[in-house]
Amino acid sequence: MASASHPIxxxxxxxxxxxxxxxxxxxxxxxxxxxxxxTYRDLPDADKFFERFxxxxxxxxxxxxxxHGYSSPYYPWSGPTALEPPLYPALLALIFRIxxxxxxxxxFVSLALNALFSALTCIPIYFSAMYSLGARKARYAAWVWALxxxxxxxSAARTWEYALTGLLFTTCFCMAQRIHHSGSLLHxxxxxxxxxxxxxxxxxxxxxxxxxxxxxxxxxxxxGSHWVLQCILACFGVLVVITPxxxxxxxxxGVVCPVRDNLWLEIYVDNFGNAxxxxxxxxxxxxxxxxxxxxxEMRKFLSLGEPAYxxxxxxxxxxxxxxxxxxxxxxxKTLRRILxxxxxxxxxxxxxxxxxxxxxxxxxxLASVTFLMMRGAIRLTKHNLSAALPYIILxxxxxxxxxxxxxxxxxxxxxxPAIIVLALAGAIPWNRNKQQPV
Length: 438
Known about the structure:
Largest sheet: none
Distance between the termini: 29 Å
Strand content: under 5%
Helix content: 55-70%
Radius of gyration: 23 Å
Number of helices: 20
Number of domains: 1
Number of strands: 0
Structural class: mainly alpha
Low-confidence stretches: 1-5, 432-438
């Protein structure tokens, strides 16, 4: 009798989990859709060159939908570009082709789709948390995400890749947590393929792949799996997705860049561009603007073309480092960027508080979440190191690119689901946490 009842119990648990996750997704989507109804009319703003409609990604989508190909990363028409990863602009271009370029309907559909991506992220969050913290805490994690202010705002009010990347990257992470248990070579190939697809949405996510792969291979090797072949297939999955885009960049731009070509622009603008104690928040680039914010810089971009413009920024950046050494300045600024990334604090100057009076409570909120995240990481490490390591890799490796360029809160949305899970581990009394075996 006991053996016969066990499968029924398992099926009941699976059915209960599916019902719960479906409810969390539905609630998350409903909340976000309500916000979309109040925000979508602000996107088609012709007075600002439709910049709120996706900024660079929206302008590229307009070019695609207009038959100009993957080009024109700023409002003026220009040549081919690799300024942004192709996945979200291509999706936005499809919306433009069906519902109209910069139309109200396209605005609603794009934000509603972002809301759906964000709501669906409840699914990998649930299974990721269940693997590391247990089923009960996984339910909490899914509901926290459904109600999380950042998740709602960055999906229902912003036309960008945040929600799509969050869904893809959290799914990749969920697979990375348990891929070492699988002896199926197709699973490893599928994981690598999904990692490559995610990189075409946000290139920075690739920074975590080598470390997650090494950890998974180490665990697979201990289990006696064919870890060399698994490694080859996972890497092949990444390359088979990214390589066609890399070839396109070589042919269209004459430069070798796997996904994007704007790294040196970001380094040039964001390192020596502003004073070490600049009190503007987010940190600005004094006298080093982007083409989208400065007419003279735009004229230079248009006259040189994107490849030559980026090459110039590379040369200027290297000249900064070699001819105008300011090591203390760079270290100080990098430390400030790290602090800003995790707390939102850059300064509490009189001007800052006047321009952004809500910043102190926001800093307190973000610092509290970060504190709970770190506390949760420490707790999980003490209780189950193998379950904690993937999270530690994620929150350590992913932000590195932003520590040396632009640390806006926007750019941590890809790892916000993992932050939520760790913060829950830090907030809930540990003696009530009963983790599942890993």
